[in-house]
Design brief:
Bound molecules: flavin mononucleotide
Number of helices: 6
Length: 188
């Protein structure tokens, strides 16, 4: 049996009053029941990331962010849809770690919005391709109308459990496979 993966559940929004904290917490509790990996919430807001390229690059938050992405084997992105795309905060965070910290790792995407955040998730897939992150097919989409009370309290419908299970199955499978790729002499 291979060691358990370290999987970061990345909160994709940072605004005051955001719901990503609730969605991420739900995802972590769901995932922890499986006992198949070490799941942790990674909150971009904790890193005080400057806008990419506007500083000398020596901020402690930037180094801490690079270390965190380096140490993770796989990701679950909790994606909010802003103007039909991902948030500026998530894009900045993706741009702010060294590209090689993302390379040859697996990811799953869960998203929310008026149409389940689908448009944002599709944008994220293009970005992950450039970062050599392998994003799995299954994509739980949560509706602001039916999976939230008053658009603010996360109450996901029971039907999402099946998709979440499939997402985590795929992230673990691809995560283990890609850890062998990272260990190849050419990548080590
Ligand atoms: C700047 C902004 C733009 C938004 N644009 C969209 C959008 O294009 N499509 C959509 O479904 N929801 C949109 N919304 C609604 C968000 O999906 C909703 O507010 C959600 O709760 C945001 O996630 P957060 O609470 O984690 O920040 C937008 C919200 C904000 C703040």
């Amino acid at each position: 049996m291979t060691d358990q993966l370290k999987i970061g559940i990345i909160l994709g929004s940072t605004r005051q009053g955001r719901v990503s904290t609730q969605v991420g917490q739900w995802a972590k509790e769901f995932a922890d029941q499986r006992q198949d990996a070490h799941y942790e919430i990674v909150d971009i807001a904790d890193y005080d990331l400057p806008f990419v390229g506007t500083t000398d690059g020596n901020e402690p938050g930037l180094m801490k962010w690079a270390d965190k992405i380096n140490e993770l084997d796989a990701f679950v992105f909790v994606v909010a849809e802003y103007n039909h795309s991902i948030t500026g905060a998530l894009k900045n965070a993706l741009d702010s770690a060294p590209q090689t910290a993302w390379h040859n790792k697996a990811a799953g995407i869960m998203s929310y919005g008026s149409t389940g955040g689908a448009r944002a998730a599709e944008h994220l897939r293009g970005i992950l391709g450039e970062l050599m992150v392998a994003d799995v097919r299954v994509h739980p989409t949560f509706s602001l109308f039916t999976d939230f009370e008053n658009f603010s309290t996360f109450k996901p419908a029971a039907l999402h459990a099946e998709n979440m299970t499939a997402l985590l199955d795929q992230v673990n499978t691809w995560g283990h496979a890609l850890s062998t790729v990272r260990a190849l002499p050419v990548n080590a």
